[in-house]
């Protein structure tokens, strides 16, 4: 499979080149040059297949022959070594739980898949040169990347996070692993971390290093998220009704992967991207003007994104035509107050504890379905409520048991280095 840059000013790249570079030389996002639907027989038989088989068939064409079949099967199996349950919380309303992985956020699947692909390419490059994964995190990405890449040979991971702005659990998830994972605590905001990473990618003094990104712009992190939508559909007992997916969205990578699943033939009636008050996309659908804004802080902070990087991919999937886009895709924005109210009403009516991100997804689903009958609605529950412990306990006035994955990191010691300026980051990268 070849990938082209959506800025259309770079040469095409193979899958491995796209993974190792992260972003095209012209700063465009990579996009597959073709998307071939899967056979109807495959879609009709999903419930007879196990998750590994489904995932292998869904991702195969995007990897092409750059990873042999048996290796790719192994990568998929290692990536998916946990469950993705679909829970009915109201009649025809389901939560798809994506938080049963090692860091209890949905980003585990993308991070694990990318780490293993990179590991495979490194083993076969026979070069001494290490790949450095440089990643800025506002919370969840860092932990998932740290855990996914731990111990992968030939790869070092450097995570930048804003001092005092990630939760204690999140900080522990990225500072306690050691080995090839290094945490840099930045005296600044998440935007400062992201700026430093972007500057490093452009810095000629670092041209001797093979730097790559592990954000959802990387095709190996973005594409495996398609699997969720197949897994959800497979678990539906009643497939007579049309299916609507609602995805709590920040950088819009997850929902973009869902739309890819639709392109591959998964029967999805409509996609809903639910956001917090960072409403660049809902505004665009409303008035046709795409106007990125600085991000605003909310209780669903993994979605505090003012300029969603994957939206260009979504536009491409709808032939850059806003009318086609609107016929299959809606986007709504919700306040923190509405989010907390939704968490309460879900808890009161069903006993289900939603985290703030899942609650935003639920709100988006309900908004779209309010004047429609007999559809099946599925919202993605992207993080375990324990990841947002204070907000959830405070909103629902209840206590949440700490799962063992989290308990394990609570006992380990944080190891990190502080930096304040880009020059300090460069010096660190050159020395390391
Ligand atoms: C990253 C994240 C999101 C947003 O996903 P995108 O693919 O960036 O839209 C939603 N919820 C949680 C918990 C996340 O960590």
* CATH architecture assignment name of the domain at 83-104 and 222-402: 3-Layer(aba) Sandwich
Which molecules other than protein and nucleic acid are bound? pyridoxal-5'-phosphate
Strand content: 15-25%
- Main structural class: alpha/beta
Rounded average pLDDT: 94
Number of strands: 14
Runs with pLDDT <50, length 5+?
none
Description of the structure:
- The protein has 19 helices and 14 strands.
- The protein has 432 residues and is an alpha/beta fold.
- A six-stranded mixed beta sheet has the order 4-5-13-10-11-12, with helices on both faces. It has a five-stranded parallel beta sheet with strand order 9-6-7-8-14, sandwiched between helices.
- The longest helix has 19 residues.
- Bound molecules: pyridoxal-5'-phosphate.
- Pyridoxal-5'-phosphate (PLP) binds next to helix 11.
